[in-house]
Amino acid sequence: MAEHTLKAFDDDIGELRALIAEMGGRAEAAIDDALVALSRRDNALAERVVEGDKAIDELEALIEKKVVQVIALRAPMADDLREIIAALKIVGVVERIGDYAKNIAKRVPLISHRSSHEPLSLLPAMGQIAREMVKGALDAFAARDAQKALWVMERDRAVDDFYNSIFRTMVTFMMENPKTISESAHILFIAKNLERVGDHATNVAEMVYYAATGAHPPERERGPDLFQEQEG
Fold first, then answer.
1. What does the alpha-carbon distance between residue 38 and residue 107 come to, in Å, rounded to a whole number?
2. How many domains does the chain have?
3. Residue 108 domain boundaries
4. DSSP code at position 113
């Protein structure tokens, strides 16, 4: 009976990991497609990203239901319980990542085809790092790889540096060209969404590290959030 219960739990965990991988893959693809839509000013692709977010939401609901079933039927303890709780938290974070991709896509029609803002050329590279962080965090979860999780946390600095550079450039540009404030603000919010994707991937990595080791990850030095400072 013990062996049967253990195998049943392993099967449940495998199913959860597969569902989370599918959900994460959709979120990664949404980030890619949103940035391609932005670079090409492809409103149709942007709309598909917005519509595709529904599938991510549906997967979140399915995974949450599965987690509740596993806890109720298997009564996991210690390491197993940490992994189940981490899975529940991770799906909420991945859903938010999908929302950020959707938010980027929604701003595509609001940016002129003639726009030549320099930060637009930086957004794909920033988005690529953010996407790699999401993939790395989910790979770390699937493999219970604490070292991979640490790598993701370290990459967050690069995304923050991109955002701070774009923020300074856009604020200067808006001051010098007041007529562009509306469009420039959309570009700035896209950069902020990508910065938040990096933050959320880092949150996933921190959960993975704890689930794998039972310890919290080492404290990291964080740079200033210029957007928050400006708002304050």
1. 8
2. 1
3. 2-231
4. T
- As a whole number of angstroms, the distance between CA 209 and CA 140 comes to 8
End-to-end Cα, the chain, rounded Å:
60
Angle among Cα 184, 185, 189 to the nearest 5 degrees reads 120
Helix pair angle (78-107, 43-74), 10° resolution:
160
**Sign, Cα dihedral of 18, 23, 28, 29:** positive
Question: What is the greatest pairwise CA distance in the chain?
Answer: 73
- CATH number, domain containing residue 41: 1.20.58.220
Find out whether 211 and 143 touch, Cβ atoms under 8 Å.
no
How far apart are the C-alpha atoms of 134 and 102, rounded to whole Å?
16
Q: Burial code of 214-226, b = ≥16 C-beta within 10 A, e = fewer?
A: eeebeeeeeeebb
- Give the Cα separation of 164 and 183 in Å (integer): 18
Q: How many CA atoms lie within 13 A of 36 on its CB side?
A: 11
Question: How far apart, in whole angstroms, are the C-alpha atoms of residue 113 and residue 183?
Answer: 11
108: which DSSP letter?
G
> Can you give the pTM of this predicted structure?
0.85
Amino acid at 110: L
Q: What is the pLDDT of residues 46-99, one digit of tens each?
A: 999 999 999 999 999 999 999 988 888 877 777 778 888 888 999 999 999 999
Q: What tens digit of pLDDT does each residue of 89-129 get?
A: 999 999 999 999 999 999 999 886 666 667 788 899 999 99
Name the H helices within 75-107: 78-107
